[in-house]
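Extended Data, panel c. Modelled sequence:
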Amino acid sequence: MKRKPIIGVIGGSRCTASVTKMAEEVGRRIAEKGGILICGGLGGVMEAAAMGAKQAGGQTIGILPDDKTNTANPYIDFPIATGIGYARNVIIVKTADALIAIDGSYGTLSEVAYSLVFEKRVISLNSWEVDPKVVKAKDPQEAVDLAFRSLIK
């Protein structure tokens, strides 16, 4: 049996209302396409994307920076407590088949960089475009379509 694609959503733990709306739509579209959403499991972009995925009947994984699973946002199905802080970003990137970066700050930048190091497709939605390999998307639909298209070999 073929497994479902795992799509990473990376972004800040705090975000504006417009970024929240984008992240929710990304999460919803990932679930509608049959993907599993993986993120850092906290608030902001991560919570909004997980909420969108859950509202569409999807599954979510949260790779948490601390050592307690109860710190996950309420939309995470599978909270993974790591106790390793930002180093968890490597786990998110290594687990994801493709990643969508939404807004974000330096933690998001580190995930974008790891995506490039590990040769994972990373799509930017109003986020870091530090390398020509980072694909810019104009909206949530295009971001999710690009992420899933990158899985076809």
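The two ends are 18 Å apart (CA to CA). This feature is highlighted in the accompanying rendering.
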